[in-house]
Specification:
Blueprint (H helix, E strand, L loop, with lengths): L7 H15 L8 E10 L2 E6 L2 E4 L4 E5 L9 E4 L15 E4 L4 E6 L9 E6 L5 H12 L8 H6 L4
Parallel strand pairs: 1-4, 3-8
Antiparallel strand pairs: 1-2, 4-6, 5-7, 7-8
The structure holds copper (II) ion.
């Protein structure tokens, strides 16, 4: 015969857990971590993920997961957005205040296709972003389709 005995402290702990699970979710702005890697799913010298879909007020955290003088610098921005340029192998937080498409690159490895894109809200400047991406990619020695692959995910 099995007897189920729950002590009073255990019941209280269970009740507290249920209360915390039932608490309404607060609408906090999200952080999107983008790793800077020497090698990733898409090859060598990559941002991962190379495409982020975010909301206005969110933050992208460029993280030097692997070090090789990686940084993140903006290449194309929606109107009114502030350019950024991170230091080598250093975490950089970029707050996304404006709607649109953002292109960025790792300055030392841009020629190797170490680039990425961010979509915030409506991609109203997508045509400009595609044109700028095509121009940039033409000069790459490898990873010539990385901006295209990132921009193909814009919805
Ligand atoms: Cu790099």
């Amino acid at each position: 015969m099995i007897t189920c005995v729950i002590s009073r402290p255990a019941v209280l702990a269970a009740a507290a857990l249920c209360a915390s699970l039932a608490a309404p979710a607060t609408a906090l702005a999200a952080d999107h971590v983008v790793k800077m890697l020497n090698a990733g799913k898409d090859g060598s010298m990559v941002f991962e993920p190379a495409f982020v879909k975010a909301a206005v007020g969110d933050t992208v955290v460029f993280t030097p997961t692997e070090k090789a003088a990686h940084n993140s610098a903006s290449v194309l921005l929606p109107a009114g957005a502030k350019p950024w340029r991170g230091a080598a192998d250093t975490e950089l937080k970029v707050k996304l205040d404006k709607e649109g498409v953002y292109l960025y690159a790792c300055e030392p490895h841009k020629m190797m296709g170490m680039v990425g894109a961010i979509q915030v809200g409506k991609p109203s400047n997508l045509a400009d972003a595609k044109a700028a991406a095509a121009k940039e990619q033409a000069a790459f020695v490898m990873g010539k389709d990385r901006y295209d692959k990132a921009l193909a995910q814009v919805r």
